[in-house]
Amino acid sequence: MKSLFDRRFAVVLLMIFGALLAFSPAGLRTTSSFSPQALAKAIIGEQDHLEAEELAKWLIDKKPDLLVVDIRSAEEFAQYHIPGSTSIPFNKLSDAEAVDMLSGDKTVVLYSNGGTHAAQAWVLLKQMGIESLVLLGGLNYWAEAILNPQAPTDLVADSEILKYQLRKGASGYFTGGSTVAVRNDSAATTAKPKVEIKLDKKKKARGGC
Q: Taking Cα atoms as reference points, which of 119, 120, 122, 87 lies closest to residue 101?
């Protein structure tokens, strides 16, 4: 009898949970169906990641469907955030207002200081049927690569030199320098002012998932 009661109680709980989910903002969305294998493949293949250089180009080009989301606290967002980004703290991602903002035809890019929390947010949104990307390395790597790019040595591949030129041009744009466009050629080489931002030093530049 006790076993039967436990099963019935479990069924009632599931029915209550289902009803609550149906009337919640997240429950109004059709969740994506994905297997653990597909999820693991997307993560290992970095299909969920976006490099800082690509995000910089999107921001400079004013990509129309782009929504960059800072999932750190409001206090951290006020201290510094990527230009053009929107603050939605991690614990607010499932709120009705946030779901409405994230829904629709948008390219959603998530970032935190490193990459771990943003990766967790990516999984959460995936379960809610919302597609997104994670900024590789987070804000720490953005500060290192885009705001304060280091010139490569002479003994590097041409692709690395081009990447540095792109970073240097983007740095001038985001820090108030005279460069206002990013090009994959040697023209984007304008000097920039030095920018120092206090970030969480405990996280590695490209740490996290």
A: 87
